[in-house]
Amino acid sequence: MGAGSVRARYLVYFQYLGTDFNGVAAVRGAQHAIGVQNYLEEAAERLNSVVPVKFTISSRTDAGVHALSNAAHLDVQRRSGRPPFSPEVLTQALNTHLRHPAIRVLQAFRVPSHFHARHAATSRTYLYRLATGCHRPDQLPVFERNRCWALRADCLDVAAMREAAQHLLGTHDFRAFQSAGSPATSPVRTLRRASVSPDPASSPFVLPEESRRLRFWSLEFESQSFLYRQVRRMTSVLVAVGLGALMPAQVKMILESQDPLGRHQSRVAPAHGLFLKAVLYEGFGKRRHGAVPACTPLTDGPLPRLSPCRGRGSQWQCCPSSWDSSLWPRGKPEPSSPSPSLALWGGRLRERSRRQ
User: Which of 11, 73, 186, 251 makes the best surface tag, with the fewest CB within 10 Å?
Assistant: First the structure.
């Protein structure tokens, strides 16, 4: 580390559609497959850090699995005399240089240098989406393909699925739902929540004439951590209950068998129906959808220079007082500079307010 050089650690939240990726983890070497992490670290190269930027991912997801909100930490060491990037500038810079449209950085926060995105997580929530009434693959809207598990059945016994899910709650040895290749040293996990419910919004991509036939369902599971493919195996067993192939009480028997090779628990639900919904950390705001209020970053050093926070009802926003133009490509307006059309619109709005 050069004299006067400062290394700053950040926690970043990001989302992605997993269809095109070989999972979230980086794929090293001359392979055709590529992970989400490869694109994130490629974008981070444009930060001009003294040392290469590496992302430490909070939650690994398989090929085809999506994330509404995953997390990672990274260290950025700027050259001597340059202050650390503000979280807002870091977010903008990464999004600007990301080359894949299916990845988006949501937010960034300064965190202490000892913070670890994987070890510090207190809760992870996975969402699995099902569709019923899809007798043929071509009956599923194209916008829903690779985003849910389409079942031929017209309905599910949701009451039985909920009863079966109760047997999974609490602290258990979940090795019956663990796939081979898991790096976990212990199969014991605590499942805090397991819910089965109709999708409240159904799907906006279903045509009116199809809405009576197609129905969408959501399964959610929350724990501090999960075993390898545990969520997809539990989903498969609960779907078997919903289809009448298993009784709710048999789920308890499967759990207590600790046998991962049984007829039902060895089946794995398709990856494309699974979404990592939220990763939560202690001290990062309310436990709501994994979101972290923009005005509550953790830091072990001075905060980046921000303009005063503006409040709108319960929503708060912190704005960077300046942007680092070195990170912004030539030919693109800097984010602090409003477009002429927006400036004109704002002027007209102020003029109208004065007249009123």
Answer: 186
